[in-house]
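A reminder from the course coordinator: this example appears on the midterm review sheet, so study it carefully.

Given structure:
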């Protein structure tokens, strides 16, 4: 099969959803496409200018209006997000459900140099920085102490993290509003510091409590950033950089649960908790280390695992291993229900038995997908709650209050 015939079989919105997370295609029509924010890791944007459409022959194409003004088809999109040309063709065939045995490459297609996977991560990390003294000075009037008399404290207790010195957490003293009066979080919401690899706080993230339906009805996001203009950094475990390996987990609180549990189990692994399936890891501490990866066993988690594995490989990791998923729940759920010590023992068993990650399509060890939906049902175009690209924050840049804070780490809140 020639390249042109293969491209005619591929549905580009589904390719974007599976590679970048379902949230990346929010707003696209299955039949006509539309305009979304650029999902390519190196070309993040705040306002949609990435067109997805069918050309007059019915073949799906894309174009960025602004930015690098790039355009192309499904194959060039895969190359633009990090696939080498030969691997992009294999992945394109997999998306189309076509055997590679009959593959005939187009002789007229020019060679394409796929972007360095580290470039996208470095771009995301450039938007991240430790909180300044002025930022830290504002936290005192923003936060109050946690106790089991309030919902945020009980929520943290349910996750096995209440009172742990490794997590600096508190609750909002008052409602968090945008400058034009839109509600972002109510007083009493849980807030926790994002500790960087240097041990300093790099962000203050707020978790709105309640069911997904209740939050949607209230117009609230699950997570917002209380101190703006610091990007969406990963959470790093205390004394990061001194461990015998690195465990990278999807979700900051899951990372915190893993760090607490592993310490009780006698492990010396460093831990990073990503800002969701689209989060960018810190590159610090990956070189010459064994890197273990754990993401949710769903479509977005599998895409996250592949992205982060390629980044860890490019960053010089000695080896990369994939930790088998727990079917019983997230790390912070298990840490709370089983107890941190028991969960730590179970997690160590999974870490000890982790399989090697294998690069790209030929035999890769991706996570199993739970409740996978056939393409024709188009469930991937629904409103999923995942970040769609490296380092994209749920909400940021809204901080307006001022105050005081005199410590980098108020652990045990």
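Designed residues:
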């Amino acid at each position: 099969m020639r390249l042109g015939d293969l491209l005619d079989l591929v549905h580009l919105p589904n390719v974007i959803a599976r590679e970048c997370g379902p949230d990346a295609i929010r707003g696209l029509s299955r039949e006509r496409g539309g305009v979304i924010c650029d999902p390519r890791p190196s070309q993040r944007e705040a306002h949609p200018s990435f067109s997805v459409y069918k050309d007059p022959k019915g073949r799906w194409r894309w174009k960025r209006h602004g930015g690098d003004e790039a355009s192309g088809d499904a194959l060039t999109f895969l190359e633009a997000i990090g696939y080498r040309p030969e691997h992009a063709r294999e992945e394109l065939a997999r998306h189309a459900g076509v055997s590679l045995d009959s593959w005939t490459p187009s002789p007229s297609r020019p060679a394409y140099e796929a972007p360095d996977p580290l470039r996208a991560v470095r771009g995301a990390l450039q938007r991240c920085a430790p909180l300044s003294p002025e930022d830290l000075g504002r936290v005192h009037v923003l936060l109050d102490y946690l106790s089991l008399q309030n919902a945020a404290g009980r929520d943290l207790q349910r996750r096995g993290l209440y009172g742990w010195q490794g997590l600096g957490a508190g609750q909002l003293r008052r409602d968090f509003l945008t400058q034009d009066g839109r509600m972002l979080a109510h007083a009493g919401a849980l807030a926790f510091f994002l500790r960087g690899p240097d041990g300093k706080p790099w962000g203050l993230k707020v978790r709105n409590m309640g069911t997904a339906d209740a939050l949607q009805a209230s117009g609230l996001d699950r997570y917002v950033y209380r101190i703006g203009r610091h990007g969406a950094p990963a959470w790093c475990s205390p004394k990061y950089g001194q461990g015998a390996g690195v465990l990278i987990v999807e979700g900051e609180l899951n990372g915190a649960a893993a760090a607490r549990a592993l310490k009780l189990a006698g492990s010396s692994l460093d831990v990073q908790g990503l800002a969701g399936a689209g989060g960018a890891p810190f590159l610090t501490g990956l070189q010459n280390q064994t890197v273990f990866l754990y993401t949710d066993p769903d479509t977005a988690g599998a895409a996250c695992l592949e992205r982060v594995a390629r980044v860890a490989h490019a960053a010089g990791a000695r080896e990369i291993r994939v930790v088998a998923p727990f079917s019983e729940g997230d790390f912070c759920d298990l840490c709370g229900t089983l107890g941190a010590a028991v969960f730590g023992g179970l997690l160590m068993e999974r870490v000890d038995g982790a399989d090697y990650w294998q690069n790209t399509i030929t035999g890769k060890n991706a996570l199993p997908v739970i409740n996978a939906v056939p393409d024709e049902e188009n469930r991937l175009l629904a409103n999923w709650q995942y970040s769609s690209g490296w380092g994209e924050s749920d909400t940021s840049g809204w901080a307006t209050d001022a105050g005081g804070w005199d410590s980098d780490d108020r652990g045990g809140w």
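The longest strand covers residues 201-207. DSSP finds twelve helices and 17 strands in the chain.
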